[in-house]
Structure to design on (374 residues):
């Protein structure tokens, strides 16, 4: 899909000392208007806490968040990630259909360097967020072109699992049942009509260092037993290969939070695994 | 994912383009209908223009294989390259499907 050139630009960056909410801090092409709000010095408490648990170190002086209000499509997400500031620790949090995000938004620090993209399930199904995230990482010079496709496939699989089996709750073996693909599609479609499912979040956290990239994908589903991943995959099964890809292409893969968090680690300077 | 279908008495061919992934189950139904309505002797999936396939997409290839086999129509996967070929090789689908590079 080709996106039209965008005129997204950051007009102001958040101030860690202010708690004011400043509207319209990011401007858009008039033909593609979406409202943005930057709450200065505030980030989603639950998202930031989860990020801090995953990655440890924090930078309390660099908390920053962008709330994405209104429908976000593939091109809009790509345009937004294209203008991420080179420094700072942005959190990009899509508001749900009620204009809300989880958490009470206290001034909670984010770890970094990196960024967090928190999308609702409804949006994440439509915007190919792994492509946009990898575009942003490659554009910043963090993700080398030669590792791009492997990283994107791993992130894609983690996000797909988080959405389908996590937030939407379709069991992994649905496609293995007779007529499973029809059943699978019907269950996903039905679930996405439920506002409670649509507003569940999938968070993508990206953090990088000298020659390393860590990605975390966090969902709000029921989780799964990570021990199931140790069982050999049935070659004829229609599902279950996502972790095969991740383990083959990432330098390390871990599952936390009872299956609700997948961690991917990449050594970008060394040879692929 | 988009696809174009071409049918002859000898074979029905579906050429897939774009990305075949977990959001494409509705399009899969359309390809299954092709098989169901086919009077051809062979079914060919052409992946030469497919840019990306995820694990769910590979599962869809297996579903198509089963749908074809249930009608005694042999299926061949042809032309995968780049990222799509890497996914197929990582999943060792060559042990299950008839694949022509």
């Amino acid at each position: 899909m080709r996106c039209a050139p965008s005129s997204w630009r950051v007009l102001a960056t958040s101030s860690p000392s202010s708690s004011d909410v400043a509207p319209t801090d990011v401007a858009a092409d008039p033909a593609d208007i979406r409202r943005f709000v930057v709450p200065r010095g505030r980030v989603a408490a639950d998202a930031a806490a989860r990020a801090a648990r995953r990655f440890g170190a924090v930078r309390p002086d660099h908390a920053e968040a962008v709330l994405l209000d209104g429908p976000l499509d593939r091109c809009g997400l790509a345009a937004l990630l294209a203008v991420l500031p080179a420094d700072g620790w942005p959190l990009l949090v899509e508001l749900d259909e009620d204009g809300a995000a989880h958490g009470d938004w206290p001034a909670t620090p984010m770890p970094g360097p990196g960024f967090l993209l928190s999308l609702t399930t409804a949006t994440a199904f439509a915007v190919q967020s792994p492509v946009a995230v990898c575009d942003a990482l490659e554009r910043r010079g963090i993700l080398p072109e030669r590792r791009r496709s492997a990283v994107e496939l791993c992130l894609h699989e983690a996000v797909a699992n988080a959405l389908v089996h996590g937030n939407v709750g379709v069991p992994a073996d649905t496609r293995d049942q007779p007529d499973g693909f029809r059943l699978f599609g019907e269950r996903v479609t039905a679930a996405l009509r439920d506002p409670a499912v649509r507003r569940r979040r999938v968070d993508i956290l990206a953090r990088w260092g000298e020659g390393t990239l860590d990605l975390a994908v966090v969902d709000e589903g029921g989780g799964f037993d990570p021990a199931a991943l140790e069982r050999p995959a049935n070659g004829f099964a229609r599902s279950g290969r996502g972790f095969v890809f991740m383990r083959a292409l990432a330098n390390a893969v871990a599952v936390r939070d009872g299956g609700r968090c997948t961690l991917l680690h990449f050594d970008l300077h060394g040879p692929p695994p | 994912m988009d696809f174009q279908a071409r049918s002859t008495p000898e074979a029905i061919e579906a050429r897939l383009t774009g990305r075949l992934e977990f959001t494409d189950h509705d399009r899969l139904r359309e390809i299954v209908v092709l098989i169901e309505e086919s009077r051809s002797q062979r079914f060919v999936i052409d992946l030469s223009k497919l840019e990306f396939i995820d694990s769910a997409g590979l599962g869809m290839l297996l579903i198509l294989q089963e749908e074809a086999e249930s009608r005694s129509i042999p299926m061949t996967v042809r032309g995968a390259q780049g990222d799509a070929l890497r996914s197929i090789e990582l999943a060792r689908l060559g042990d299950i499907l008839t694949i022509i590079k």
